[in-house]
Structure prediction request, 510 residues.
Amino acid sequence: LGFLVGDSEDDTLAVLSAELDRIQKRQDEVSFNSVTIIEKDFGAGEIASMDVKDRHGFKAQAPRRKAMARARNYLLYATMKPEHSWVYWRDADIVESAPEILEDLIAHDKDVIVPNIWFHRYVEKDGKMVDVEGRFDYNSWVETDKARKLQATLAKDDILVEGYNEYYDTGRRYMTREGDYRDDKDVELPLDGIGGVNIVVKADVHKSGINFPCYAFENQAETEGFAKMAKRAKYEVVGLPNYVVWHIDTDEKPR
Amino acid sequence: LGFLVGDSEDDTLAVLSAELDRIQKRQDEVSFNSVTIIEKDFGAGEIASMDVKDRHGFKAQAPRRKAMARARNYLLYATMKPEHSWVYWRDADIVESAPEILEDLIAHDKDVIVPNIWFHRYVEKDGKMVDVEGRFDYNSWVETDKARKLQATLAKDDILVEGYNEYYDTGRRYMTREGDYRDDKDVELPLDGIGGVNIVVKADVHKSGINFPCYAFENQAETEGFAKMAKRAKYEVVGLPNYVVWHIDTDEKPR
Prediction:
């Protein structure tokens, strides 16, 4: 296990340390082989301290994604060991996922694989509370000619971010808008960009140098840039539209 | 110290192990804090087994550079530790360099810095043997508009390599054609591509994810791609034209 705590002003580190201490002291089979916590700030405090509306606003996106990419790479290179075969990236704000998620995703034997990311939100409908099953992660997408043409007009330092159609429209096919957790969980969709909530990667991919660009890589950064880089290096990137992992509801307006 | 032995059919590993064992057992201050040898093949055996003429021929260059990039990244991520501040890349075939080279290069406090790479070759001239002071490393260069225009015509998977003017001419400014070791050793030349014989890098650059692309990064791979990636991420890349490190003479025809 590896954790990165950065640009934090709350008691994350204390709570995390106490919980890990509790788990690692257990005498049953629950404790982990090794646990590492990396504490490092990336000057993203200004972004982290914004409320969710500002933090997810358009202007904050490029610097935010670059800082997150650096943080991911620092964590990766402080914790990945030669004996590792797979790397599992899991955000702290996942609220629900299948216990056998690692086995499920590794069984596909892909270089890079991600599930679909949704969130629960209960709204009243005809006097009953109904789960809207909100679509969360718009960073997992299939590239389009429209987006390729748009990129041809951009400077090499420009970074595209999804979900800000008032600035530009990539017309990309978003995996999160598709899928149904009641259908075959193993259906695959080849992707060109991915989100970072839950990624399973063959360690060979990272060891060969494919990581999270903290700069504009073909006009993408962080996890979307990671997918583009992996594909440029001829690795396979796949999503599972029907395999749903539930993220916390960040109270954003549904798109 | 970290070594990678890959795609080798000679006794490199045995000789290296014996020498390291000898050095690490010394009771004076010569032994190193830690030594790691990584043994891994990258399927580049076909390239490694070519004679120097074929190996340095045009067709072998792109796969060769990609394999070397993967090897460098594997070595990096198996040996770099969180406590490291600088990473020094040094080829096995350097025959002569100043003992204080690390202090000299680190004193510049640059993100990425390389010296000039030449080789000794003695030829008879007027009855005396004279050192031609051959220019070795054409991978350290300053980008030109001509090369930028050339790149605009290339596919994203195409990889440019230097020194094959029969295929294309980048018109780049090669550091190795300049410089004089009798002049001020600290003169700096900002570079856009670098060679890999001798590189000093701030560890922060590597930890942030900047490494050796084993794919086409803006139409370059390996060390030249590394420099392009570092610059895209706004790191500073510098060469020292008057600071000469001597590479073994590979008996190639002088350019």
Q: What stands out?
A: The first helix of chain B runs from residue 12 to 24. Chain B has a mean pLDDT of 92. The interface with chain A takes residues 38, 69-70, 72-74, 77-78, 80, 82, 156-157, 206-209, 211-218, 229, 232-234 of chain B (CB under 8 Å). Helices of chain B lie at 12-24, 45-48, 52-55, 58-79, 101-106, 145-152, 203-207, 222-232.
